[in-house]
Amino acid sequence: MIELKNISKSYDSIDAVKGVSFSTEKGQIFGLLGPNGAGKSTTIKMIMGILNPDSGEILFDGRPLKKVDKDKIGYLPEERGIYKKLTVREFILYFGMLKGKSRDQLDVELERWLTFFGLHEWSLKKTEELSKGMSQKVQFITSIIHDPDIVILDEPFSGLDPLSMDKLREAILILKDKGKTIIFSTHVMDQAEKICSDIVIINKGSAIVSGSLSKIKSSYGSNSVVVEYDGDGSFIKNINGVKSVINYPRYVEVELEDDSFCNSFLQEVVGKLTIRKFEKVVPSLHKIFINSVEGVGIDE
Questions:
Q1: 285: helix, coil or strand?
Q2: N or C end of the chain: which has fewer CB within 10 A?
Q3: How far is it, in rounded angstroms, from Cα 183 to Cα 269?
Q4: 216, 183, 193, 156: which is closest to 22 by C-alpha?
Q5: Which helix H or strand E contains 9, and what residues bound it?
Q6: pLDDT for residue 295
Q7: Distance, C-alpha 163 to centroid of its chain
Q8: CA distances from 242 to 4, 57, 192 (A)
Q9: What's domain 222-281's architecture?
Q10: What is the pLDDT of residue 218?
Q11: Is 2-212 a CATH 3.40.50.300 domain?
Q12: 3-state class of 31 per DSSP?
């Protein structure tokens, strides 16, 4: 579907994107990941033709991406906006018609998505009357109302409550099942790990990790454990054989020096904490992200 070959973009002396390559497939949720300022949004803007790359190629179905192909792409930018004086229905239909669809073609999709998100009673209200969560749902609908083949979502869950996040995640999976290609851009690894099959992690404009998420995780070995507990777990970082710890309230992900420390580690924590869960796992995407980015460094 979309393939990037050694894409680069600079602003004066700043290399925003440096030789990034990746490809996506039909029916795939692809994670474009990285810390804030890594070059994700610049990469997306080059795909959308908002910015021109200094070098490299962007291909659509194996050929150079053309202006006409943009109508087959839906885009939800990170910096979102609405036309406040339009009604919800007018706003969505306007964007659909910009993509070359007739009102009759759009009405069927519009009714379906308004029903899905529970927005029917708001369809004739001005968009300025919407809550932030409802506004984001409406803007998501505008990005897919023309039934695109590729959907690019830049931080789509930002600011949503858990119920709205679940509903939007369900919508993304519906699109995937229909054979749409989803490019999902975020710096929140927990979100990406739940829905992406393949990823690229970008830092300081360069791709530092890429490929199948399952293969990437397995390549990091299985010398990690997660522990859910009650008590004071501050001592865990000092246990013999512990390489690193990611702390959460009442939960830790621990990277061990190697597998041989697993039993002795368990004995140490059982004697000092009330264990709710103990599981040997491959590293989380969060852990892989931290290890990868720390190795390159993050701009302040």
A1: helix
A2: C
A3: 41
A4: 183
A5: strand 2-11
A6: 65
A7: 18
A8: 40, 44, 27
A9: 2-Layer Sandwich (3.30)
A10: 83
A11: yes
A12: strand
